[in-house]
Amino acid sequence: MAEEVKASWSKGEEIVRMLLEKAPYAEGTVRRERRLEFKVPADRIVDFLRTAKANGFELLLQITAVDWLKEGEIELVYQLFSISHGTHAMVKTRLPRDEARISTVMDIYPVAETYERDAHEFFKVTFEGNPKLEMPWILEDEDREVGVSHRKDFDMLGYVKRKYKLLDRFDEDKENYVI
Amino acid sequence: MIETALKALFILLYATFVGFMFMGIIRIVTARIHRRVGPPIYQPILDTIKLLSKKSNITHGLIYDFGILYAVGATILAVMFIPLGSIGVLRAYGDLILITFLLEIPMLGIMFAAMSSGNPYAGIGAQRALLTLLAIQVPLGFAIVALAEFYGTFSTYEIVMAQQTMGWSIFHFPLLLAAIAYDLVLQAMFGKEPFDIMIAPGEISLGPMVEFGGKHMGLLQIQHAIALFAETLFFANIFLGGGVVTAFSSSILNTIAGLAVLLVKQVAVLLIATFMGAIFPRFTIDQAAKFYWKWPTIIAALGAVLASL
Amino acid sequence: MNELLIIIFAPLLGGVLAWALNVRGIRELLGVAGAAVPLAYLVKLYSELDASGQLSHSIDFAGFTFSFSLTHLTWVFAMIAGVVGLASTIAMVSTSRDGYEWLFALMSLTGAYGVFLSFDLLGFFIFWELMTVGSFMMVLKYSRSAGLKYFVLSVVGAFAMFLAIAKIYALSGSFAFPDVANAVYYAMGRGDLALVFGLFLVAFGVKAGMFPLHVWAPDAYSETNQSYTAMFSGVLSKTGVYGFILIYMLIGYRLMVEFGAFRSAPKFGYIIAFLGGLTIIVGGLLAALQEDIRKLFAYSSISQIGYILVAFGVGTSLSIEAGIYHAISHALFKGLFFLIVATIIYRTGKTTFADMGGLAEKMPFTFAMAFVAILSLAGIPPMAGFVSKWLIFEAVISQNLPILGGMVFFGSAIGFVYLIRFTYAVWFGQRPTDLDDTKDAPLPLAVAMAILAIPNIVFGIAPGLVVKELNKIFGGEIVTSPTLWELNLGFGRYNGLLILVWLIVGLLIAAVIYFLGAPVRKVPVTDTYQSGNPVTMEYNLTIRRNFFLPLKEALAFWLRISFDKLYRDIGAWVEDFAEVMRNYVYNGNVQSYAWYLALILLILAMWGV
Amino acid sequence: MVDWRLYEPLINFARKRSMWIVAFCTGCGGIEMPPLMTSRYDLERFGMMPNPAPRMADLFLITGYVTPKTLKRIIITYEMQPDPKYVLAHGSCPLNGGIYWDAYNAIKHLDKYIPVDVAIAGCMPRPEAVMDGIKKIMDLIETGKADGWKRYKENYEYYKKNQDELFGEGWREKTARRWIPWLMGREKKREEE
Q1: Of A162, B128, C323, D115, which has the maximum CB count within 10 A?
Q2: In C70-225, which ranges are continuous DSSP H helix?
Q3: Which residues 83-142 of B are in CB contact (within 8 Å) with C?
Q4: What is the ipTM of this complex?
Q5: pLDDT tens digits along C359-378
Q6: CATH top-level class for D8-192?
């Protein structure tokens, strides 16, 4: 990890302090100008987002997931945007990989329904309370049945070779493939 | 009998050929306005040959075929009733109301065929086409009323003849108003922008036309050509004085000159529609209805009231 | 017994017998016979009528003289009743449930015959009420609220007619039509005349379904046996139309003299024509927005009656002839439509567009009939509907009445609009799976439909047949008809045969091109372009609900104005008022009644009695 | 009835000079279409025009990578087109997967599933290259060598086998029904309201 450049964005720090006062269970830092970062325990995420929305973070832009294979955790990143403060905020929370369950935030940000379906389909995170999780999304039915996911322990290349009957011209040990 | 048949054959061939040329002219003129080269003028004929020579065709049932045939048949029927210069087969029966109805019913045939396919796009297209029809009917009706009341007759041929002594219809103020309204209506009858919401290629995949392919579409191209000819011919006859030439001693020369005069007038009508179509974007259906129920209706109703005084 | 009385009372007799015996099989036979006998007699009397010009008969009953007369005019209307009534009763063989329906359906047919054939106001009124009762009972059996609405408006109409007749009787001392016409012409004052005209307008307007008195019609037409509705809309509404002719016959000259003319239309007629024009537009627009197949045709019926009223209002003999022609073709195609609706409901048991679709494959005969009816109603040449509409257009526009001309033009377009909605939702598209074993029309309904469909075609191709009869009404060549196929108005010509021949020529040319192309392959309804998505029968993609949503949105402002609601509000106010009266005035307290008495006596005393 | 072989040169000329395109743009090549269609290169000179409905179209442009989801639609649309029909594949993705060679949702060899008449290499091919491809397909039509539609008919088993291997048997019905439980639920809810 490169040396962290400590940001000096006083307005951001004020926002972080104000939010942390109301949500003492979270940690917050300023990454750089207009980029805030919060770390929240998984069971308090609903409380925190509710607090955030009440304090000027009107929009939920996206929910992304990162698979930390070695640590056995899945990190969910809720990207918030505040029009009134003019800043992004990344709210991060970590879940255990084999028991990835978290409460839905649909009732706070209705748009979360779609992003939760996305994270559910590709990272197998279960959002409790979202009624449309099982609705067809991007993956085709046959892919779903096989269990295609973007988790790092899924053998994507092998699956692709099997699925499309590719000639085995490349070797997985090699660094670069020439096709 | 044989003379009638020959005349009818001539009208049919002439209408089809000129109609195809008109379609070509529309495409070339639009291309030139876009600063493109555009297709050759005989392009619609090539399209039709190609469509008719498709090696596989589909049908969705009897009505699907019959609707198309009906549309073509009704268009041929309509063109027979409109006086074409000094050639006419049924012009004695060329009643204004009858021709107005006959120019509309091909659309009914197409709608029947389109809807029998069960395609939802065709359903939406039919809905929009009908609402457009409903919208244009008011100014169209008033324009026809103005004409009939001004000349005191419903016969298209007599109206043409009356214009030879009284001057063209558009030189009389009430009928000028009617002609303006009718020209705006023609824009929708041609299916040109800004009133082409019923086929809306990008949104509903050509609407009613979505399921037609092969020879059905080829027949519809022929129908479109004849209808284009018939509509412009009707306008040229009732508002622009028709094509009656008596300058030459030979009747054949007179006939040819009459056809040439008519052709010039028809192309003028066509070009106005093409220019309008090339520069306007598309109206939504409620905008189109509100437009037609406002200005053209007011203009045409004023014309009708003035004509009836 | 006189033939006229047989014509009038045969249906009632048949109905009563059918109701009294009430044996399945026999009651149908009796009912159909009851409708067939008058028709047979009408056909038989034709040559006699042609020779003498008028057949009359009168009987004395309860101190009054009832006279009946068969003229060319009444013969035409009675024939409408005969043909449509017969078709409707034949169709009822399939759809009726018990003797009750036969009794009241045939009772209303008797009423209609009586109205057409009566030659005095008293008989006219009595048969009018008989007809109303019969049809009211038919509606009541199916829906209480629709029946009550019909009843209330009919009572208003009947009351208006009663007042008018009383007014006329006070003046003339006679009910017979010639006496009445004379008395009105020579003796009636301007105010009385306007009053009588207004009362008649209300009375006949209610029955014909004229805007704004049309509110009963959609409910009553839809909430009854649909086979009967063919008669209801085809015949019973024609009595209202006949009433408007009666206005011309009885008080027309006097009105014309008294109030003058607007352009060439009489002023009083212009009122009728303008209301008729509004009826066309309102009925048509509302028909396009209906979700129920029966309601659509009920509103469409209202809209078409508007044409007849416009034609009658213009008041020239050409326009009245055109109106009668449209009355004939309306009875034919609208009767046919209601029989088609009856068939659909009989076979599927569904009434809303949302539950239907794709029936053309399953009911080819019914669809063929529907095709004829659609072409006729939409005014496609050469069909009866086109000829009558064409006559109306020419009659209206040739009288220099531009606004009415615009209204009728709009009406023809709105006809297309609602018919296409019906066609798309019922006959085409994907079929709901529960309609997969739908059968075609049963024999009686098929026969009834064929009876009405054939004249629809014949009267369009050979309009001379009808026009010859209609010319006799006026005793002159109003519309010259050199051959059977041709009509000539002087300023416009129509030739049904030529149109048919050239249409066939056009179809042949198209067919030649069509058959030169490669052969076609039949594909199922699911093989359709949906942006490349595969289609399944399980999810129905056909647009059935809210087909004309943009129209609805465009008209949202106007749709909020509802005369039905206005009448309901008036009804509620009357009820409230009565409640107030009951609470405070007629409170059942003897003491307060004594006070009223004292008060009235005091007032009388002050008045100087 | 009529011996059409006599008119075959005329018909082939009409076919060549009147190719209607299915407006079904997949992948990134769709953006190359506007310059081709508009005043810069003006394809309408050759009688080509974009056409939204496949029933009356002749030329199917596959403009870029194809996912299994798109391929299903492409096959259905292709089968709807009336014969004769031609397919023109743009770029390297339909050829061999291109830069998506290891993606789980990009088809690697399009011509295993539908016949391709002309393929244009490049990532993406420039409009000039596309024009060249169109010239090529015109030549093929004139000489009667653009016979992809015949090959599809003759080798239907082969194509069907490849399609079924990728999507599974009965994929059309399965795809059509995929959303039905959810749509029916919505319908029911609307009716209850």
Answers
A1: C323
A2: 72-95, 99-117, 121-142, 144-172, 177-187, 190-208, 216-222
A3: 90, 92-93, 95-98, 101-102, 104-105, 108, 111-112, 115-121, 123-124, 126-128, 130-131, 133-134, 137-138, 140-142
A4: 0.82
A5: 888 888 888 888 888 888 88
A6: alpha beta
